[in-house]
From TrEMBL:
Residues 4-122 form the Response regulatory domain. The keyword Secreted does not apply. The modification 4-aspartylphosphate is found at D55. PROSITE patterns: HTH_LUXR_1, HTH_LUXR_2, RESPONSE_REGULATORY. Residues 152-217 form the HTH luxR-type domain. Keywords: DNA-binding, Phosphoprotein, Transcription, Transcription regulation. SMART domains: HTH_LUXR, REC. This is Response regulator. Pfam families: GerE, Response_reg. CDD domains: LuxR_C_like (cd06170), REC_NarL-like (cd17535). The lineage of its organism: Bacteria, Bacillati, Actinomycetota, Actinomycetes, Pseudonocardiales.
Length: 223
């Protein structure tokens, strides 16, 4: 399978570099480039890429709002969105995840890590940089009005006891391997639990599971 990518980056040198790296991969093809937010939204709708690589700072429409329009609630069969950011704009990451992003990566990460990040979210296997993501979500969770605690508990009660335990560990930023070690179960068993959790809570991926856990109060920032 060839992963079709849309690269959204306003800095031309960075965008050209991303395109060159992705196009050099045997399993990737860049089908479009956008230098501003409105173009990103238009091209995503027209080209239907598998993955959108989205910069946070985009002229015309920032990366968060562009992500929401491309992959947010109500969008049918949305692409995966990988948000790239820098250390000094990490306050926006939580909002980007809520907007529908499937993961994020720091902009100064090695190019090989960028390529692996695309493959990771394409598979839907895990949340990128889970420990860092939890820190960011914990830091900014108080900026978002929580979902009804009663509704959250009602949904949480649908999960089996072991599924609830896995969800709490996901929200703490653990990878599948770390969860397997923590619970003394196999990696494949963890993947099965994660799939069941996402299906029962009607969530797209682990990113949404983490956000859901914090917004409902099932997991607090001090857990």
């Amino acid at each position: 399978m060839t992963v079709r990518l849309l690269v959204c980056e306003d800095e031309e040198l960075v965008r050209v570099g991303y395109v060159a790296v992705f196009d050099s991969q045997p399993d990737m093809e860049v089908v479009g480039e956008a230098a501003d937010g409105p173009a990103a939204v238009e091209l995503a709708a027209r080209l239907e890429p598998d993955v959108v690589v989205m910069d946070i700072h985009m002229p015309g429409l920032d990366g968060i709002e562009a992500t929401r329009r491309i992959a947010g609630p109500g969008v049918v069969d949305p692409p995966k969105v990988l948000v790239v950011t820098t250390f000094n704009v990490d306050k926006y990451v939580y909002e980007a995840l809520r907007a529908g992003a499937s993961g994020f990566l720091l902009k100064d990460a090695p190019l090989a890590e960028l390529v692996n990040a695309v493959r990771t979210i394409t598979r839907g296997e895990s949340l990128l940089s889970p420990a860092v993501t939890r820190t960011l979500i914990g830091r900014h969770a108080d900026r978002v009005r929580p979902t009804s605690a009663a509704r959250g508990q009602e949904q949480f009660d649908v999960l089996a006891p072991r599924e609830r335990e896995v969800l709490r560990l996901i929200a703490r930023g653990m990878s599948n391997v770390e969860i397997a070690d923590e619970m003394v179960i196999s990696f494949e068993t963890v993947r099965t639990y994660v799939s069941r959790i996402l299906a029962k809570l009607d969530l797209r991926d682990r990113v949404q599971a983490v956000v859901w856990a914090y917004r409902t109060g099932i997991v607090g920032t001090d857990d």
